[in-house]
Every structure is written in C-alpha cells, then in structure tokens.
Amino acid sequence: MKRLLSSAALAALILAATACQGTPSSAAAAAPQAAAPAETNINLQDFDFVTSKMRANYAGWDSKVTDETRPALDALTAGLRTEAADASPEELTALLQEWMAFFDDGHAGVSPLAAEAPAAEPSGPPPAYPSLDWTEASVRAQLKTLGKSRDPLEGIWQIDGDRYRIGVLRTPGKPEAFSAAVLTTTSESWAPGQVKAELTRKEDGALAVLFRSGDHSEHLVGGNLLLGGAVIGVEGWGNWVREVPAIPDPGMVERALPTGTLFLKPLSDETMWLRIPDFDDSRAQPLKDLLAEHEAELASYPNLIIDLRENGGGSDHVYAPLTPLLYSRPIYTVGVEMRASEDNIALRKGIADELRTEAPDVAAYLDNQNARMAANIGTFVPGGDDLVSIERLEKLLPFPKRVAVLVDDAASTGEQFLLEARQSRKVTLFGKENSAGVLDFANVVGMQTPSGRYQVYWATSRSMRLPDDPVDPDGIAPDIRIPADEADPVAYAQRWLERLVD
C-alpha cells in the first residue's frame, strides 16, 4: 500500500540526487488541444489532474510509455475514466491506484488524504465496544492454571512495543476461537478490557483474525503463529510478540523480524550487528552518535553485519558515515538526469526553501539544478557536472575486515547504499529476497488534486544507468541467498562471517 509522503519525506527523497552529465533527451509532452469546457465532475477533475500531471512531469514516462505500451495505457485510461465519473470515494481511490499500477514504480502513486470532518457536539452515550472483564492478574492466573495444556495462542502479547499489551485466552463456548483483550495501552482511544481482536484457528492451522484498528474499525485478515509460537503475525497489522510465557531466546525475535529501531550491538566477541530501519533525515545525527559511541568496538571487531531489511530509504547523506567502515577502493556512482518541467521546478524550489536554514548546501545544490531545468523546459538535464562520480578516501580502515549486508526489500536510498557498498572488497550481500527494486526513478515531489482528497506524487529524476543496468523492478540480488526456511537470517550471516579465516 502506497504511503502518503509528508513534506519531510519528499525532501528526503529529493536529496538522493547524484551527479551526472550527458546529452539531454526529449521528454514526452501532451499534444496541444483546443480549448474545452471546464470539467465540472469533481471525480473527473481529480482523475484528469492525476493523469495530466504524470504525463507532464514523471521522469519515467518516456521509459514506461512506449509505442508498444501506449495503446494499453490509452485503453486503461479511457476505461477507468468512465468508471470514475460516478465512483464513490473508495472506488475512485481504487481506480486511481489501478491506473498508477501501470507504471509499476514505488516512486509514483496516489494517496488519499484524510478528510477533515466538521466538529460535532457529542450526542448520546459513547459507543459501546466489545469488552471482557479480564485483568492482567486474571489472565496470568488462568495461564498458570492451564499450565502445559495452554494453547500456543494463549498468553500475554505485545503490539508495537508497549503500545498495546493484550491477553489472549479461549473464547468461552468456542473451542477454536480466542479473544484478545487489552490489558494495558498507551492509546487514548482504547481502554483495558476492550477486545482488540478475535482469532479463529482454521483447518490448515492458519488464523482468521477479526482485528480492530486504532479507531475501532474492524478488519478481517489472515494470521499465523511464527517462530515456534513466539510471534503472531497478523497480515497488514504487524507482529505480536509473546511476553508471557517468556520466550526462551528473546533475541531470536529481534533477529528474525526486522524492527523499526536503530541500534548497534555485539553478537559475539567477533561480530557487531547494526540495524538501520531507514535513511530518513531524522536518522542522520543518531547514526553518527551511535557510530561514535561504539568507535572502539568497531575498530577492533573483525566482522560487522549491517541489517537493511525493509529499509524504506531516505537521503544519501545519512549513510555517509558508514562509507569509511566499508571502503576498500574507489567508489563509482552513476548519476541521474532531471525531467525539466514547470511543476517539477516549482515543487523542488519549495523543498529548497524549506532546507535553506538547516541544510544550505543542499538548498544551493537544488537551486543549481532548478536553474538548469528552467533553461531547458521539456527536456532532461544533467543532475550534476559528471556522468560518473568517483569517491576516494585517503585511509583504509583495518576493521571491520568483513561486512555482511542484509538486503531483503531495502528500497530507494537503501538500494543506492547497496550499489556503493557492494563495490567494497569487504562487503558481501545476504538475503532471502532481493532488494525492493525502487531506485531507477527517484527524487519525489507531489501535489494535491483539485478536490484536496488525494496527493499524487512522482519521480523527477531517472538514473543514467538506464537502460542497460536497471534496478527496477527486480531489485538487487544478494551474493549469498539465505535459505527460505532459515528462521534467523542475522545468525546465518554471523555464522558465515565467523567461519572465514584471514
């Protein structure tokens, strides 16, 4: 599901531009049309806005819309536009996202914006939500009584750390059904005793889960017990981690399932483990501080695991402090070219203005690109002065000697990091899966549709690696493919590193 990009996220993505040069190539432009009566249907206003903005501004348009694919896109556009005229808001969202799916690009999409509901005076009693008279003491007592007869689903579980702690026990009178009641929560919209979910075991052992989200809306999804009963995976709603009975090896859950926490810790006397959930600008200083705090260990441990599983990307400059740890020879980076359009220039100028105080050098870099674009509307222009940039460091660090990078579903800037890291003689890429395959078209901007109900966003740059060396859509393959049934990818990489002899 595409996420709505905030101003900060848009700024982060646009920072991923890399230097390049080359002959600008023509961008597709809409053919001039005779003036037509203004469209009055609000759905069609939004639909036409999305399709026209993509056509005029998206850096991937020329690559995705060719003589071979244009008839299919034209037919899709005409058909969906007809459906859009009388569509409900939910149906229109689906239609717009179906149209965007044609481009198969995580850096191009449509996200619904939350509608602002008018404030209303409370009337009548508050809604009555399903609840049980369970307490932590009563759940713990029942679990103790059950002893070895406890079903693997029964216990006390955590959702989002301490966001929710829930007790799960059999539903009275329903042998294959289980109720999950809140014991403690930091959510203001939930209270102890309210039933967060109802789980039913199916014949194949999987779970049917009626899950109630933060606003108490109900969602029927699938689920499974994972890691020998240590985790309940709920499709679309994350993982529940068992607290009671205690998990024999709590670290196994952290290693098996990528967390959203940045940390660096030792796994043994030989191997350090660095977890980086994303390269968002907010990670820049914490990552620098973390590396400084553990400088002595990094200078003495022979092995380092960098865990980029599900890394959502961000800004290239955030991972810059890692480069000295990995460096073994000059790093080559192929640059990008920017699609020059009035919208792209205006939106990028807005981002530059937001960054003038906190990152004046970046703002100046964007100003330079924008000036180049303004002089070449309707073309692609180099994002920098060189087609290929070469980074050379004066010093090669003796430690770490070996670096494993976990690549599964790392996206955008995470993939740019992989392209640079794999050039090092120290680095080996590991993964059950490839990276996400969302890099070739980048530097995202966005606009609201005329109704204010949606935000459409698109990439403004394309890599000069294209068409010969794409990352999209297949992603970057690991050097070492971790077996699909391996429960602990971090331990797998650790064993591999520690078997090596200098």
Structural write-up:
The protein is of the alpha+beta class and 502 residues long. Among the domains are: 151-244, Lipocalin, CATH 2.40.128; 253-499, 2-enoyl-CoA Hydratase, Chain A, domain 1. Helices cover 28% and strands 24% of the residues. It has 14 helices and 21 strands. The protein has helices spanning 7-14, 42-57, 61-64, 70-84, 89-101, 136-146, 250-256, 284-293, 295-298, 323-326, 342-355, 360-374, 413-421, 489-499, and strands spanning 109-112, 155-159, 164-171, 174-185, 195-201, 207-212, 218-226, 231-234, 238-244, 263-266, 271-275, 303-307, 331-334, 336-339, 380-382, 388-391, 402-406, 427-431, 441-448, 454-463, 480-481. It has an eight-stranded antiparallel beta barrel with strand order 2-3-4-5-6-7-8-9. Strands 10-11-12-17-18-21 form a six-stranded mixed beta sheet, with helices on one face. Strands 1, 14, 15, 19 and 20 form a five-stranded antiparallel beta sheet that branches. Strand 7 and strand 8 form a beta hairpin. Helix 1 (7-14) crosses helix 11 and helix 2 (42-57) runs parallel beside helix 5. It is globular, with a radius of gyration of 26 Å. It starts with 6 loop residues before the first helix and ends with a helix.
